[in-house]
Design a protein that fits this description.
Layout lengths: L2 H5 L7 H23 L2 H7 L4 H17 L1 H11 L2 H15 L13 H31 L4 H29 L5 H6 L1 H17 L20 H8 L6 H16 L3 H10 L8 H26 L6 H13 L4 H18 L5 H6 L5 H29 L1 H28 L5
Helix pairs in contact: 2-7, 2-8, 2-10, 3-4, 3-13, 4-7, 4-13, 4-18, 5-7, 6-7, 6-10, 7-8, 8-14, 12-18, 12-19, 14-16, 15-16, 15-19
Length: 419
């Protein structure tokens, strides 16, 4: 830990301890929203939703979680209220998910309540993510950002695995009834908030760990200039080609909500087993992030060309009529999801100057979100009408993504951005 960190009044905990505390906050919070996310398809189906509605809601949820970061990232930088936004974002998630218990108790309004709570839970992700990452970056700077973020991600994935298992156990104990599984997630949610509040009290200013300067004051940039920056003005054309290619894979990767819906309505597995299948996908996701990240560092960017191929095969397998093929599709889904959530974002840093990376990541998330909502609704609509057309449309979009990725990565190899 730096001298500044050890001597500053706010630095009452060692840097590694703070990293671990942040990791445990994410572990318990991931139990909440990944546990719930594993059942969003069956939850919406039980509330009377069609496959189109399931696809639209889950796609819109991913869009909200991505696009709204364009708003809350700049808000955090301009106000300096990183802790406030982090607490508010986690609070939205841990409150909204257990409230799904009320869905069957409000009659005809149940579907509207479920949709509202799911979208608010995803909004919580957008509210907290930029601020939480900024806070963690300060502390991780004292221990090595690679190691610090690595430990945090590992604990995060433990929660993503444990949450669906908890939900599965509760649903099994309740003889297949979904709603007690949602209510049970209030427990890890409460633990996450307690840890976060204690951490806020103990470490009010994480910047002391790296000696960072105070946050930028509100209003230091003209509004028009800020809006242009948020829209990506001045970023290289190769970045936008890459963002479009990556977003085509995001939008075409069918949401878990539709896969879970398929598992239930086609009676492929018991309702209580859906979160177990999702937990397996989370384990595959963690392995994929590690394996492809290792390969990326050693073999270069072309390892990412595997992503459109994986996305293209998911619907052909995941919507089959046999459990074995569906599970193979789930493995492909988890692998593609793992690469999209980790390694595929690394290329952004090589496509833009260091001074524009934060802006570039915001724009990148915004483009992903726009395609996620269209992809989710389109997949749900096609699922109800023709699985053949769904497989064909996904294949065509992934061919386009593959071409865009290939040309962009070749551009990067010929003319890499100098740091």
């Amino acid at each position: 830990m730096s001298a500044a960190a050890s001597s500053a009044p706010g630095a009452r905990m060692g840097a590694w301890r703070v990293v671990w505390w942040f990791g445990f906050v994410s572990l318990f919070a991931d139990m909440v929203y990944e546990g719930a996310r594993s059942m969003y398809g069956p939850v919406l189906a039980a509330a009377g939703a069609s496959a189109v509605v399931v696809g639209l809601v889950t796609g819109a949820g991913e869009a909200v979680a991505l696009v709204m970061r364009l708003v809350f990232g700049p808000v955090a930088d301009r106000t300096g209220r990183y802790w406030t936004l982090t607490l508010a974002g986690y609070g939205l998630t841990v409150v909204c998910v257990p409230l799904l218990w009320f869905v069957p108790r409000v009659g005809a309004a149940g579907l509207a309540l479920a949709v509202t709570l799911i979208l608010l839970e995803r909004l919580g992700k957008a509210v907290r993510s930029p601020s939480k990452s900024a806070l963690l970056a300060h502390v991780a700077g004292a221990v090595g950002r690679g190691r610090g973020f690595g430990v945090h991600k590992a604990l995060d994935q433990v929660g993503a695995f444990a949450g669906p298992l908890l939900v599965a156990a509760v649903i099994a104990a309740a003889a297949g009834v979904i709603w007690p599984g949602m209510a049970a997630l209030a427990v890890p949610g409460a633990l996450a908030m307690v840890l976060l509040v204690v951490l806020r009290i103990r470490v009010p200013d994480p910047s002391v760990y790296d000696g960072a300067s105070a946050p930028v004051a509100t209003g230091t940039l003209p509004t028009r200039g800020w809006l242009a920056e948020a829209a990506g003005a001045g970023l290289p054309a190769a970045f936008f080609r890459y963002a479009l290619a990556a977003s085509l894979t995001t939008g075409a990767l069918v949401t878990w909500g539709i896969i879970g819906y398929h598992l239930v309505v086609d009676d492929l597995v018991p309702v209580s087993s859906v979160p177990l299948v999702y937990a397996g996908a989370m384990a595959v996701e963690a392995v994929a992030a590690l394996v492809v990240g290792w390969a990326y560092d050693r073999t270069g960017t072309r390892i990412l060309l595997v992503v459109p191929v994986l996305v293209a095969v998911v619907p052909a397998l995941a919507f089959a009529g046999t459990v074995a093929l569906v599970l193979a599709g789930v493995v492909a889904w988890g692998f593609a999801q793992g690469v999209q959530d980790s390694t595929i974002k690394a290329v952004v840093a090589d496509l833009v100057p260091a001074s524009r990376r934060a802006t570039a990541y915001g724009v990148f998330a915004g483009i992903q979100g726009a395609l996620a909502i269209g992809g989710g609704a389109g997949a749900g609509w096609l699922y109800e009408r023709s699985l053949t057309w769904l497989v064909a449309v996904v294949a065509v979009t992934q061919l386009a993504a593959l071409v865009l990725l290939w040309t962009t990565l070749r551009t990067l190899e010929r003319d890499p951005v100098r740091r």
